[in-house]
Amino acid sequence: MIRYATQKDENAIYELLCELEGMSLDKEGFHEAYRDYMKDDKMHCLVAEMDKEVAGVLNLRIGTMLCRCGKIGEIVELAVRNSMRSQGIGHGLFQEAYHIAREAGCVRFEVSTNRTRLGAHRFYEREGMERSHYRFIRYFSIEK
Length: 144
Fold this sequence. Notes:
With 144 residues, the chain is of the alpha+beta class.
């Protein structure tokens, strides 16, 4: 079952995203960001439940881009519990997010993923997405 996340899902989502990142995330920072997500009408936080357990999460942001002359749906996080992969959970979350973005009038649906996550690249290609842009980042923590 796919549904919108609630405040009660915070710990399960935290665990999923720590698993995705392969490290413990800052709990306080995560709590603050989660609270912001829950209040932001541009964010759509979806969870997939299996046997009353949160098995996956997808966070969709809907925003406007001037150069696209319209709204963009962007997957900002997608994680499925390692022990529950290959059961269609990611596909279900992706399809629900795609539907939400389309219904919101988005002209484009996109995702950025780490270049080392080859399995994620194959997943998105199976979902009909194509490689298009490069993303460049600069961390504030390294500036002195």
